[in-house]
Amino acid sequence: MESLGTNKESIERANKLESRARIAIVQNRAVDRHMRLELGVNYGPVAAGDSYLNTQNLGASVDFHIVPQFSLGVRFAQAYNSLTSEGKSQFDTYRANIAAGKMDTTAPEISYPEQTLMGIATWYMMYGKLNFFDVKTVQFDLYSLAGAGTQKLSTNDGNEYDAPTYTAGGGIAFWLSNHFTSRIEARWQGYQDKVSTGNRDLNLIVANFGIGVLL
Q1: CATH code (residue 173)
Q2: Residue 99: what are its φ and ψ, rounded to 5°?
């Protein structure tokens, strides 16, 4: 045993057991997204808009994946609006003033969104995989997006008009299989609406959850 450390053959064998190599393995994306079309539907709330309105969007999307890291698309959203408690209070006060004969009172002004149509560019910057309770491994991508388009608005006195709109944000996309997808997304959207006092800058926070198919 005392001579083991001086045995050259034993030392060489021991050195071979020590690995000095460092190997990093990154698996490729399991779902191929080269030149593929994604069709989706989504739903979600809108925050930080007109204080008189609650708005929720029901939408549809088309994304053309040129490569896994980049896609171009179109987003359409139909808005569903209702009055907030503050909005209801303002209209109740207006109706009460009219009933009391106060003819100099004015109705609250509301310019509410109806439809949105935008072109979108999306960059999928990070990807990975999730293991759901050892039942299924799902691939996901973190992404950022930016786009522009047209916002259709209406006023409570019956006027309709269009305004340019812009958006930027991000989300996470889950590729549940080679054909089924899901997204969770949050983004800023800005536009100007029109009231009697002039144009107002509105900065909305739009969130949505969507499902889709890859063709």
Answers
A1: 2.40.160.20
A2: -65, -30
